[in-house]
What does this fold into?
Amino acid sequence: MTGSWGSCAPARCWGRPPAAGWSTRALVKALRDGPLAGAGIDVFGEEPPPADHPLFSLENVVLSPHTAASTEQAMRRMGLDAARGILDILGGADALNPPAGAPWQAVNPGFAQAGEREGGG
It folds into this structure.
């Protein structure tokens, strides 16, 4: 998927490139040349994106800051979910395999391995 967008329009992607499986270069090409008519983006590979980011020059793109988690309600819920996760793990839950119905997500193994390589654990 990183080399071409094929004939998928509209497209939805979640996550930061390239981890989400998409390439900024391929997205720009698909928006300029087709098959995509437009895109809405709030997550960039580099945060904040540089002033010369190629998506800034396209008129068929809506860009916004990644702020969905900035509400008071979201902050409260994230705090409670994090606390629940900490208590679950301290109680013996596997961080890579949360119990059914847990409000927290499993640790991304790639992220955990990167932290180990950098001396973070």
